[in-house]
Design a protein that fits this description.
- The chain has 124 residues and is mainly alpha-helical.
- It is 48% helix and 10% strand.
Length: 124
């Protein structure tokens, strides 16, 4: 089992999240999809192959760049932290191993509030 809670930096943790997203996309046999992150620096780094890479995330970024070749098209999109609040909620509870198994089909009240606010708020 992997220990995903011990990244050396925020950039390394964000890159690990992208790696997990690409692994999921591969397991679902997706060829084209949009990948969102609230890390503008990481999205910029991945969008420009000539950009300087944060050393703490260099191995993950190299893995991401190599594995992007498996997909026909990946669109990178930056999402503000506020727009990413529901994902942060799920990740936080999952990290503490207290996320309900049926959170997707039966969201807890605290997540419902976030989702309802997202539904009525204008995009960032």
């Amino acid at each position: 089992m992997h220990n995903y809670g011990s990244a050396i930096s925020v950039m390394a943790a964000e890159a690990l999240a992208i790696k997990l997203g690409l692994s999921l996309a591969s397991s679902l046999s997706l060829s084209s999809f949009q990948l969102e992150s609230d890390s503008l620096v990481l999205i910029s780094t991945l969008s420009n192959s000539l950009s300087i890479v944060d050393w703490t995330a260099a191995r993950s970024i190299a893995w991401i760049r190599e594995n992007l070749k498996l997909f026909q098209q990946v669109n990178w999109r930056w999402a503000s932290r506020k727009a990413n609040e529901a994902a942060d909620w799920v990740a936080s509870l999952a990290l503490r191993r207290v996320c309900p198994i049926d959170w997707f089909s039966n969201p807890p009240t605290s997540l419902m509030r976030i989702l309802l606010f997202d539904a009525v708020s204008p995009p960032p």
